[in-house]
Design brief:
Helix content is about 45%, strand content about 0%. By secondary structure, it is an all-alpha fold.
Length: about 70
Amino acid sequence: MTNTETKDNYVTVRIPKELANEIDAIMESGTLGYRSRAELVNEAIRRRIEQLNSNNSMKPNSLKKIKKE
């Protein structure tokens, strides 16, 4: 963690072991340059959020503003 990153800035997410194994295989191949599961997962989530925003004709980051019911 860098100086600006603290545990308070993070949450834990559980994923199925099978999915974790697939992520590990991607990392072990070394072809995409990921150094950790977290790095790959963070990028995947960011890309999916961007996709959802653009598919729903929503302004960037507008999904953050949707309140939970």
